[in-house]
Amino acid sequence: MAVATREYGLFVNGESAEPASGETRELTEPATGEPLARVAVAGEADVDRAVEAARAALDGPWGKTPPNERSRLLHALADAIVANRKELAELEVRNVGKAISSVKAELSQAVENFRFYASAIASIAGRSNPVGGSLLFYSLKEPVGVAGQIVPWNYPLMMTTWKLAPALAAGCTIVLKPDSATPLTALRLAEFAGEVGFPPGTINVVPGPGPTVGAHLVRHPDVDKIAFTGSTATGAEIMRLASDPIKRITLELGGKSPNLVFADAKLGDAIPSSVWSIYYSAGQSCEARSRVLVEAPLYDDFVAKFSELAGSIRVGDPLDPETQMGSLISNEHRDKVHGFVELGREEGAEVTTGGEPADGKGAFYPPTVLARVENGMEVAQEEIFGPVVTVIPFEDEKDAIRIANDVRYGLMATVWTGDPARGHRLAARIKAGTVGVNMPYTAFPGIPFGGYKQSGFGRELGLETLELYLETKSILVSTSPKPFNPFGL
Ligand code: NAD
Prior knowledge:
Elements: E1 7-8, E2 10-12, E3 15-17, E4 24-28, E5 35-40, H1 44-59, H2 67-83, H3 85-96, H4 100-120, E6 135-143, E7 146-150, H5 156-170, E8 173-177, H6 184-196, E9 203-205, H7 210-219, E10 225-229, H8 232-241, E11 248-252, E12 258-261, H9 267-279, E13 291-295, H10 299-311, H11 331-347, E14 350-353, E15 368-371, H12 378-381, E16 388-394, H13 397-405, E17 409-410, E18 412-416, H14 420-429, E19 434-437, E20 452-453, E21 456-457, H15 464-467, E22 470-478
Parallel strand pairs: 1-5, 7-8, 7-10, 8-9, 10-11, 12-13, 12-18, 13-16, 15-16, 18-19
Antiparallel strand pairs: 2-3, 4-5, 6-22, 11-21, 14-15, 17-20
Helix pairs in contact: 1-7, 2-4, 2-5, 2-6, 3-4, 4-5, 9-10
Residues 150-154, 159, 177, 179, 210-211, 214-215, 218, 229-231, 234, 237-238, 252-255, 286, 383, 385, 411, 451, 455-456 line the site of nicotinamide-adenine-dinucleotide (NAD).
């Protein structure tokens, strides 16, 4: 069936479900403005139903599913993504507007992510250490319980897999809330999970508005843990909401990541990679390197070459395999991004390429460069979340580190230098969860990803992510033949 004609329900207890209110929402394609699908909008009663199903699965069949079977099911879900990759890719492209070349890479990562956690299950183990005398100690790892997971619109499928895979590996059950504008691939993934054998209730998907449905999920007394990816402002609200009743949280938040280019760098690598690092996914990436810091003697030449390359990016139909950058998520978001460019002009930045919304239908915005930016400007401090880069000069290594760290975020940084020792020095001194040295890529299954400072806490994609979905239970046993009688009574 063509994706454009389908209606999507919620996914609760292993099947498509009508929302209690009967409310639906029509989705349009951001790149064309054409209708895409009609999708159910969850309300609080639907969250309650989903949490009940997740609890029942945890107390029932999923709670009894041994690790080797969980591993097999994770591989089966990875296989299902591979088998249905064309449908998933088209759905994601039409729903988000991003280029299919980018979505294909995200799909591969989604597959590898399930496979990584399918293997990582083998690392879930308690321990035993000597405590002396007749005491035996051992610990058990148990799933935290029902996990509420909230994901944003910028990588709907990939973020969903980042959340689902470790939670399922750990043995949790899940109520996932995608953004109500981009729920389609998460809903399809949940259907595939049902088809490959995950018991009903293990994965539930309830798209709906954040401040009502999302907040209800966070406050729900029968949800044990919240894993959130989204903006820093919403993350702060989640922390408040999760304090009563107290529950475990992890937060993957915003970024304003630096990309440092030293005069000794191989510019033939650094310039195209720096262009890619901001404009892939149209700059709507948490770890987009949106502050390019350039050593002063190189600055003018760098800006000229960078701007020329940025201006040559192929922007257009996101379903065309030759397209490098699709549309933004919506016209409203495009206007917000343009507002930042106007602000940059007012603050004294020079627009060297782009800077005006494209004519015609669709939420397109061209790759834009703001040069002559100082790090204190609002455009250098706030997450623009669009194809807009700020280029800032620095004097020397010390100055570069100061500017790189002079921001409230700390998600990612990239350093371009011909001096390996300098690369290691900067990696140690930049406050970010990931630092790439002469390497633009950011996220790989198996390599922990997450933030310092207001970019959040907790890590995804790594072995340590499993710990965030596990409790450690310590068992103490007396092996003495004598009765254990501490008061000697
Ligand atoms: P957002 O915070 O507005 O929304 C994220 C999700 O939270 C959505 O599902 C939304 O419905 C929900 N939500 C909103 N208010 C809520 C509330 N009060 N209670 C519960 N849920 C609520 O963010 P966005 O604009 O959708 O996404 C972009 C942001 O996400 C950017 O800041 C980006 O940097 C960040 N992000 C971070 C990472 C990471 O790994 N660190 C990855 C992707 C995106």
